[in-house]
Request: fold
Amino acid sequence: MTGYGRAFEAMRGATGPVWDAYVRHDFVEGLRDGSLPREAFLHYLRQDYVFLIHFARAWALGVVKAGTLEEMQACSATVNALLAEEMALHVGICAEAGISEAALLATEERAENAAYTRYVMDCGFSGDFPKLLAALAPCVLGYGEIGARLLREKTSDTYADWIATYGGAEYQGLCESVGGLLDGALERRYGADYRNLPVWDGLCATFRQATALEVGFWQMGLTP
Amino acid sequence: MTGYGRAFEAMRGATGPVWDAYVRHDFVEGLRDGSLPREAFLHYLRQDYVFLIHFARAWALGVVKAGTLEEMQACSATVNALLAEEMALHVGICAEAGISEAALLATEERAENAAYTRYVMDCGFSGDFPKLLAALAPCVLGYGEIGARLLREKTSDTYADWIATYGGAEYQGLCESVGGLLDGALERRYGADYRNLPVWDGLCATFRQATALEVGFWQMGLTP
Amino acid sequence: MTGYGRAFEAMRGATGPVWDAYVRHDFVEGLRDGSLPREAFLHYLRQDYVFLIHFARAWALGVVKAGTLEEMQACSATVNALLAEEMALHVGICAEAGISEAALLATEERAENAAYTRYVMDCGFSGDFPKLLAALAPCVLGYGEIGARLLREKTSDTYADWIATYGGAEYQGLCESVGGLLDGALERRYGADYRNLPVWDGLCATFRQATALEVGFWQMGLTP
Amino acid sequence: MTGYGRAFEAMRGATGPVWDAYVRHDFVEGLRDGSLPREAFLHYLRQDYVFLIHFARAWALGVVKAGTLEEMQACSATVNALLAEEMALHVGICAEAGISEAALLATEERAENAAYTRYVMDCGFSGDFPKLLAALAPCVLGYGEIGARLLREKTSDTYADWIATYGGAEYQGLCESVGGLLDGALERRYGADYRNLPVWDGLCATFRQATALEVGFWQMGLTP
Reply:
């Protein structure tokens, strides 16, 4: 049990082995036991900066597609947190690691990076609000699951800061909110039995494809 | 019974008096009994030319948002019919009426015109494929209903060409296709009992607002 | 001189008499001299609440379409201000006027209201970032111009709160920011001589149509 | 000289070595000399079927974003050709190769496949019409360049059908049309000197990223 809500639980369950390929990827295990090469981590951070820009765009698209004021406000708060805080935090972490903001901005986006974020954007543009959330969920909630597990299981403090960020109370609280947003979005549109509707299969397929693209992102992280 | 499918029947039923305000608008009655001033009709034709451009864009958005190859093909065929045939037909009708193609292209779009088409576009961008169809349906199928009735009830031949276009077999066949597309789109996503889901109320509200904007379009037609 | 930047100045200049029809509309003059019927003002407030929701969506679309981090942050800050503050403020004003939040949420959106916001949304979806801003500008900056003038010229305190909001330093500062955002967005994409490019004519046409739709919004305000 | 227009020529010139990495990829050379394993070719055909669906969606988005009737008609004709003819052709080729239509529809989309098409879709949604075309151009026109060269340089007839399709007069004519559409779209918006505007750099970056994603698509083709 992740505690991130009913829908996430069910989507994850329907995803099959690709979920573990994501949350237990070699990159993740390297964060856990400190064996991840520093160069790979820095490469990941640079790509993640570009990622965050498109991630913020995707949450802004959530504001556009939301159906209630509460949904709008939840998405808007996330956009604002990403653009006003998370990006600055990221710039700070990178600065400590010797990567200047200019270097971050000059990062050439890798295909595996674009693949995930543009897939999310297209789900958002083409589908409805739940479709967008289903594409976003593997990232937000997967990181939460990874962070929580690594906080318990880490055998090295090399990447303790990263683990503390995603395993910590603040990010875990965000995951609970996003999980609740997904649950509510589905019920408000499709009723309580949404898992018996055809649309559910499409949402699970979206979640699975997004998860597969996250596996690609980690894999890219290993090959600077 | 219109014969345009289950969903249209139900949405129209949920729309209330605004439906009749649309399909029995003074403009429509003026087409029926020939009392519509020629100037109003020509003004309507000019605005309708601009309308058709955005209408084609909306159906193209349907291709973007469709979930199956059949849905894509149905929307694409409509776009192509509009751009490759309907527009040319329209240009021809206007030419006979003394309006040049240059004059058509120079038509300043009236607010009541923009109101409907942009509402449809935004439904399409913000919602899913059924939402887009729910916004398109009052136009496509309402014209079908109007054409069929006027063919039976007309007391003048002044606007017989217009009536023959929308009351005729070809357009009526299109209406049956679009009605079937809507029925199928809903069932493929929401199952057979979609009318019991919360999403149904939103679709009916979209259909009703689109109908109200069509009333505004007729009203504009009366005030060149 | 409005002080809202070069591009706004030029677009307004290219708009012709419809600009004055907007900023000197009878509704506006009624705010200035207090002659606007209370019922019309309350009706306007209710419609404006629905308007703000779509206005926030349009600014969120700005985040999606922005080309630089600064552009994203500017749009995101506006979305957040609208959803986290302005809406609450609006609810407060309406509460004082005897309109409950439930009543606000139940407001049926008028066609003239939908016409403007959906036009903006479609400009944003169909065009690029400057196109979206050109459609938003008449609202943001027109209200700034109206507020500033009414603060100087008002002959009654009946609507002093409304006038103080839009004529006051905070809103005027926002207008300067948005004007600068528009200037920068154009120069960053089209260079300093953007007014000599064909795209400029399209942007001015968008600005003009948006202004015309704002006239319709005021007109609607007079007819509860 | 490719004969596909000024803008393509210039964008290709600005792309650097990644262009050759695309049009002279091992997959392409394997088509030329017949050394491409049959299994890889069939795998490519299956993925290409999924690709065509999203490619048609992207051209439909072109209809939505076009600025003139001619632009709309050009995009619509392409959508229609893809959905009404190309898909059927593809199904036929696959059937001959022993892949049923059911198998095609069941193809699991590979990440490298999604990466390109969703990148194109997002360029279209976020940018203007030229941006969408800049993202589409490497595919349409690159295949034209490859087809034309392989028709001259092939040393085996194993993949003669494929080569004849893209090197043949019909596809080459399409390339000239699309090249002209791109030229016209740029000039109509940005004037004849568009290459001196800042927006040009962004368009070239889009073209380059799309080309890099096409390299990934060929690479995927080699790894069934």
Remarks:
- The radius of gyration of chain B is 17 Å.
